[in-house]
Write a structure and sequence with these properties.
Elements (H helix, E strand, L loop, with lengths): L4 E2 L4 E2 L9 E5 L4 E4 L1 H6 L4 E4 L4 H19 L5 H9 L6 H8 L55 H14 L5 E2 L11 E2 L12 E5 L3 H7 L40 H5 L4 E8 L2 E9 L17 E3 L1 H7 L5 E3 L13 H4 L2 H4 L8 E2 L2 H11 L8 E12 L4 E13 L9 H30 L5 H24 L7 H26 L1 H6 L1 E5 L2 E5 L1 H15 L15 H11 L1
Antiparallel strand pairs: 1-2, 3-4, 3-5, 6-7, 8-14, 9-10, 11-12, 11-13, 14-15, 16-17
Helix pairs in contact: 2-5, 12-13, 12-14, 12-16, 13-14, 14-16, 16-17
Length: about 575
Amino acid sequence: MPETEDKTAGALSFDLTAQPWIPVLRQDGNQDELSLRQVFEQAGSLRRLVGDLPTQEFALVRLLLALAHDALDGPRDAEGWGKLWADDGCFEPLAAYLDEHRGRFDLLDSRTPFFQVAGLHTAKNEVFPLNRIVADVPNGAPFFSSRMPAVDRLTFAEAARWVVHTHAYDTSGIKTGVAGDDRVKGGRVYPLGVGWAGNLGGVFAEGRTLRETLLLNLVAPADTPGLSSGDNGEDRPAWRRGACGPGAGPTRPPTGLRDLYTWQSRRLLLHADADGVHGVVLGYGDALVARNKHRHEPMTAWRRSAAQEKKHGEPLVYMPREHDPTRSAWRGIASLIADRAEAVQGTDPAPYLRPGVLEWIARLVTAGELDQGFLVRARIIGAQYGTQQSVIDEVMDEHLSMAVVLLHQQDREFAEQAIGAVADAADAVTALGDLATNLARAASTESEGPRATARDAGFAALDTHYRSWLAALDGRGDPYEQRTAWQRHVHRTVGRLGDRLIDEAGDAAWQGRTIAVKSGTEWLNSSLADKWFRIRLDRCLGHAGLPHQLPGAMSTQAAVTATKDHA
């Protein structure tokens, strides 16, 4: 076992700066594990990080960003960032930095183990199974199904990754109290919330290589609209702060990105021998409430919360905008690319804020540091918790490829058409759902199930084409012509789905029945439902397709009114 056991002193060691532990994907598709030093040395030839879970990748990216911010002491502004972007050797200072702080990056050090508390123990000196830090899901469907019901051992490399992940995404719930923590009551500490990143609808920009990814997310807060510049003199990552004790530190806001990306939300200690890690002690660490942290946290979108404003008696509260695993990322693109100034109506605060990291890229585009056609992938990663946040129910990992012109702060035409195209899809799919409802009503069957099924089918049919269309919206064509082309595609696609629903409706819907409307009663059958659908589709897509020529077709306004009565 290379350099993991000091036979002379009898002490274990696993140096994260020198030992391979970070999983990466190379440009040729092969996977590998690298040390911290190797990751920065080879970043230009690596595709991206990978992880045991997508949330682990997000946590590791934030760790690397904290290292880069601290070693480079910046960037201070867009111009300084541009110099890093142009310099292939921009990460060379990381080697000396890692040498300087090497003592704080030993996973098994007896005094300052990495991201752990030396000597951490419970009153009864219990050591718990590794299930407590290896993320799983409930109901007998764990991500690591081959290891359940218990994770007996982890390699040092695996354990290091899960330690980073635990601080970011650990579940809430009642935890066994550790000695020295004044929050312990009856041997327990009651729920204090999930790890910091577990609150977020995580977003980061992914480039063509890991080097580009790290640089694109290397935000200069002082030069980014909406972010607090913090105090760079006081902003330090966890390894440049004093070692944590077993209890919570003083309640405080983050001093900056380096502090936030390495926030010690838990207190833990691995138990290991020469063959690997076999147990853990885990307790709560430093609490950090999510409310109004939008000036500190750049890697999530934010939403205004009237409920939180009322609860805390505050005039304005923003909360992280969490991801919905049931909804494709492109349907929420407005929260990623809409400029905050556009969302304000009159003097009211914006109802949502796009992620600070995308505000930063918008600044780079506007400053001319990035070409408008440069393509980035917005990676969207998050955890959905269940049962009072005591388990992880689901992990979301999506992406949207887009040209950075969509983030330009002055030239907003392309972004407006990208957002409008989603509205086109939503309107058309709503019409499809109404058609399914009307067909079910005509056949005297249950109506809500068919509506949901039709909507799911509509969005699924448009998903791939929207992603391709969005990636091609790169500032070189006419955005309005491109929007019209999209509307034609939506009209054709959703129209064909409507045809299928009509064909499958059956004789009962074709014959129809009398239904109650506001004005009395009316005969509803599949023919009338189809007529309303076609007129709705033409209207919401600007007659983008070739409408069916139906005898005695009513006016568009009449169709909308009728649909409201019957849908």
